[in-house]
Amino acid sequence: MNNSLVVVVIASGVLFGTPLLYAALGELLAERSGVLNLGVEGMMLMGAVTGFWTVERVHAARPLVLAAAVGVAALAGAAMAAIHAFLVITLRANQIVSGLALTIFAGAAGLSSYLGNDLHLSGKPARYQFQEIFPKSLRDLPIVGPVIFGQPLLVYASWACVVLVALYLSRTRVGLNVRAVGESPAAADAMGVSVPRYRYAHTLVGGAFAGIGGATFSLSITPQWVDGLTEGAGWIAIALVIFSFWRPTLCLVGAYFFGAFKALPFALQGHGVTVAPELFQTLPYVATIIALVLVSSRAARLRFGAPAALGLPYAREER
Amino acid sequence: MDFEAAAGEVHALLGENGAGKTTLSNILTGLYRPDEGHIELFGEHVEFNSPRDALDAGVAMVHQHFRLVSPFTVAENVVLGDHRDVGRSFFLRPRAIESRVEELSQRYGLAVAPRARIWQLSVGEQQRVEILKALYQDARILILDEPTAVLTPQEAGALFETIRAMAADGRTIIFISHKLHEVKAVADQVTVLRRGQSVATVPIVDATPRSLASLMVGHEIEAGRRQDGGQEPGEAVLELDEVWADGDRGVAALRDVSLTVCAGEIVGVAGVAGNGQRELAETIVGMRPATAGKVRVRGRGIRNGDPRGAIGAGVAYVPEDRLGTGVAPGLSVASNVVLKAYREPPASHGPILRTRRIRELAERVIERYDVRTSGPHVPAWQLSGGNLQKVVLAREFSGEPVALVAAAPTRGLDVAGIETVHSYLREAAERGVAVLLISEDLDEILMLADRIAVMYEGSIVGERDARVATARDIGLLMAGGEDGD
Amino acid sequence: MRIERRLRQPWWLTIVVPVLSIVVAFVLSAFVLLLTGHPPLRSFHRLFDAAFTGNGALSESVVSATPLAFTGLAAAVAFRMNLFNIGGEGQLYAGAIMGATAGLLLAGSPSPLIFAAMIAAGAVGGALLAAIPAILRAFFSTNEIITSLMLNYVVGLVLEYLIFDSHSYLRDTSGFEANVFPQGKTLPDEATWSSWNIHGLVLPLGFVLSIAVAGFVWVLYSRTRFGFEVQVIGDSVRAGRYAGMRTRRKILAVMCLSGAIAGLGGASQTGDFRHQLDPRGLRSANYGYTGIVIAALARYNPFAVVLVALLLGGLQNAGFTLQGADFPAGLVGVMQGLILFCALGGELFVRYRVRFAW
After folding, report:
1. Is residue C20 part of a domain?
2. How close, in Å, is residue B195 to chain A by CA atoms?
């Protein structure tokens, strides 16, 4: 029964959804503080390539190497986000253009590809990768085996991240300040909350999350490096944040939904059903558009709307 | 500029718009830094580099435009940025915060539910939240910037009691206003500001409204009242017939409004901000569709929800939101002058714009209305409020309207600007235009209008002849009091 | 440090700042090259030679610049009204699909007729695709950034489906080889767009067309009522509504115009250069996204768009030419990104004055 279509799709949907989940959580944090970063794809690819490079070049015990790889990927993502943050927070550049520039700079035809080629990383499997951590007896349990126990560590870590981000935003004092900065920077500023500091911090952490999301590809899903291996996952992550109404727990659901769509054509092929994979793969994109239309009604926007100051630069002098 | 305030004192800063009151308070709260000079607090030299420094020193401010996060609850707003009290803990403790808010609001008579969300509150309640924020942060000095501008006379009275209670606790209250009678009613000391300088500080017992007024503007002024032009109103021009419309939140913001404005008449619409005045103006000019009822101009119904219909029928509109609705801020003065006239000659010929003609039109407007700017190519946002309003009025009058809807036309203008706008409105009425003046400034309405309609919660709750109306009577209507008492 | 809005923008700033931005971008690129062990000056020299001064290099750069000029103009047209159409990529694919179809269907007809049909079909294809986010934005207030972006992927996948996974009209199914290595059907010779050779510089029809479009856009936006309305709505939607402008109609018109221009780029790809529907080639080129960069760099001025397209097209062309062991792919993207970052940062100095006084 663990080979049944539904179980396979759900199990691989969870895996395929994990990089989306990391990236979307990161983007969510940035957007909650009022910074829209369209450079997710670039940040993910940088995380993927630097993570892979670490695994190739660092010689140590497997867990250490993998931990280092994730750390390096997070740093690379944060470094990319720092460029965006500097441009849009300090220099007040247009957030959309800056984010796109970041995608071009770091993306499939940019720095990530440059590094991948220059360091000769393409075309070989990763020396170490994240593997299932639970014993086979658990993994063979019906349904929950593959879905819950058959996942690599990064999946479980992402669950912890969802809980942490959700608690952070809704239950902590700092989280309250973040939300205020995203909703009404003027109000936060008047109460002594430093708007630039909060925005920088959350944009950078967002980048780190995107980097980890990228590393999930090169260290677990694929696991190798090819130019542009995220195949637009960064863009989906941006859509996912909107799809989930800026709520971390809904991000989890959405990410697995999108992941399942990604997994479905492969699973169907395994069952001898052939569909044109291209047409099938359009479904998540079309679904995003439909979901967007559904939540863009006025009533829905009031309840689930974007942070009010999203995408707007804040400057105290200009009021 | 110098001034001094003692603990436990209510100290008023009195001055016209542009006298430097708001700049001063921004310096006191650390939003701006002074170019020169220094601030001393309880005998100690302090330097505020950010709002946080000011808050930590015990200086808090209630801004004219509230600094509240509208999707948040009252308690969340109050605890925002706090790092001393129960908010110091890493995790929020909603219960503790709520009970503290409750306690404060009872002690100072600031009734508001701690769990309510800001967007659900009335303007008066939101102001109470602002004061609660300051009290929660243990502010020793509280600055209130024009706090009564958004209140009914009755609500203002309650605010004054809160102010006295806070002063009795040893807090210093700095009360910024340009209304003489309020200053007289609440302050112990008053410092008069003029053009960025403090002119005098006097104990309130020694001051009369007249002496303060002359200090404020530099010469004696007459308290204005509508001079009877003696002109009889003509035929009905603008008619609203049982009009309903929804607000931005999808709830009815206009309820069954019927109103007539005749040629040559100024009808004032009074009311506390947020009682449907904005929706009223927008519905008349077609920017907001009416859900029921009819707007008629000279007896002909105008197309619902289509601004072009209203423009075609000769309805001019001076919107409340000057920069953003009244003018496109990034475009040149010239473009803004032809914002409505660009469709017809001489501004265009068929689909083609005639840029030279447009520049000439703009130059003429700049000259005739004395707009202070270096030329028609200057982007509109660079103009001062008064000059911007001149551009708007010039454009609206150039269309030779039959009716004019003016929403808060003098908000944020200096004395000279207010004078100019008032004279243009009077002139328009003399030329037979039906003028609907919507304003939150009751004095302005009493001064200009022939007839006064009062709005409360989306309805017109009463109409008065301006010659016999009293501020007290209108104030009661504004607060939703019974008509006809 | 204090940042103040400039009340006056000296005219020379608008020239000095972009030039300086590009210089800074090259300096930063030099650092990237140095860090990865490549000699920067020699790399730049080779890059410049391969882009502009080398034998026939400029003609090749014009080839690379043509689609970028179209997508740049498409982005600029929409951005002027604050509509962020980032679907230029997909609209270009749609134009290519439609253009290729027209070219194949009309095989045997006189060339001018085929050219006209391909141009029209490309424009319609792009406009139709752009109409989707336009309608959603105008009537449901759905954010056009995400919808137009998602459609890029949808059309990209459809493009691949047409050639790789179906037996569509556009696919070459003539022989055994074509079935193993799927590719698009080759357009007839009469559907090959003209080009002009001026002293060794080859100007393809598409490039000339893009200059004509730039002229059209300039006149439309600075000299007509339509352009005036676009400016007002772009500056403040409420001011546009207030002045009685039909904002919804304008959203539809501008988005469709933008899509049509991007679609022309797609038609030009099939007519001028590729002569078949080439999914891999189109998808890997990222013309649409680069076009957005170009529009922003050109500050939405249509003629500047064509110039910037030549600059970035030259870079891209050089990247293709030099790509190899000692010249890693991706460098060009890095440089493009750096140029844009610097231009964005430089924008601050045009709009604001930075004072270091306390």
Report:
1. no
2. 21
Six token digits for residue B93 = 């403790």
Check whether B77 has a pLDDT greater than 70: yes
* Subunits close to B (at least 3 CB pairs below 8 A): A, C
Residue B280 lies in a domain: yes
Interchain CB distance below 8 Å, B355 and C231: no
Looking at the structure of chain C, the number of domains it has is 1
Q: Which helix (DSSP H) or strand (DSSP E) does residue B475 occupy?
A: helix B471-478
CB contact under 8 A, B353 and C225: yes
Look at the pTM and tell me if it is higher than 0.90.
no
Provide the pLDDT confidence category of residue B290 given band limits of 50, 70 and 90: very high
> What sign for the dihedral angle of Cα C194, C196, C197, C203?
negative
Closest CA to C335 of C321, C318, C352: C318
List the Cα angle B410/B416/B419 in 5-degree steps: 60
Check whether residue B68 and residue B200 sit in a common domain. Answer: yes
- Chain B residues interacting with chain A (CB cutoff of 8 angstroms): 29, 31, 50-56, 61, 63, 66-72, 76-77, 79-83, 87-92, 133, 249-250
Question: Are B45 and B181 within one domain?
Answer: yes
Q: Residue A248 in contact with residue A166, Cβ under 8 Å?
A: yes
Question: Regarding beta strands B189-194 and B172-177, do their DSSP bridges make them parallel or antiparallel, or are they unpaired?
Answer: unpaired
| C-beta atoms of A179 and B87 within 8 A | no
DSSP state of B223: P
HSE-CB for C120 with a 13 A CA cutoff: 7
Backbone φ, ψ for residue A236 (5° rounding): -60, -40
pLDDT digits (tens, 9 = 90+) for B124-161: 889 999 999 988 888 889 999 888 877 777 788 889 99
* C269 or C356, higher pLDDT: C269
Domain end marker among B217, B238, B265? B217
Q: Are C43 and C53 in contact (CB under 8 A)?
A: no
Domain that holds residue C261: 37-327
The answer, yes or no, to whether residue B85 has pLDDT greater than 60, is no
d(CA B437, CA B250): 26
Please report whether residue B319 resides in a domain.
no
Amino acid code (one letter) for C163: I
User: Which residues of chain C does A122 touch, with a Cβ-Cβ cutoff of 8 Å?
Assistant: none
B152 CA: distance to closest CA in chain A (Å): 25
The answer to whether residues B175 and B111 belong to one domain is yes
- In terms of domains, do B14 and B126 share one? yes
Structural domain count of chain B: 3
If residue B403 lies in a helix (H) or strand (E), which one and from where to where? strand B403-407
Task: Confirm whether B3 is domain-assigned.
Answer: no
Q: pLDDT tens digits for C137-191? A: 999 888 888 889 889 989 999 999 999 888 888 888 887 777 778 889 999 999 9
pLDDT of residue A64: 94
- The yes/no answer on whether domain A5-304 falls in CATH 3.10.20 is no
C34 reaches B (C-beta below 8 A): no
Q: Which CATH number does the domain housing residue B136 bear?
A: 3.40.50.300
> C209 — contact with chain B (CB < 8 Å)?
no
Q: Give whichever of B424-433, C142-151, C155-164, C252-261 has the largest mean pLDDT.
A: C252-261
Same domain for B49 and B176, yes or no, is: yes
Q: Positive or negative CA dihedral for A126, A130, A136, A139?
A: negative
Q: Is residue C344 part of a domain?
A: no
pLDDT at A1 (0 to 100): 66
Question: Does the distance separating the beta carbons of C344 and A97 come in below 8 Å?
Answer: yes
Range of the domain at B290: 224-314+401-485
Flag whether C335 is in a domain.
no
pLDDT digits (tens, 9 = 90+) for B237-270: 999 999 999 987 677 889 999 999 999 999 999 9
- Chain C residue numbers with beta carbons less than 8 Å from the beta carbon of A83 are 341
pLDDT band at A263 (very low <50, low <70, confident <90, very high): confident
Strands of B221-289, DSSP E = 236-246, 252-262, 266-270
Give domain status of residue B323, yes or no.
Answer: no
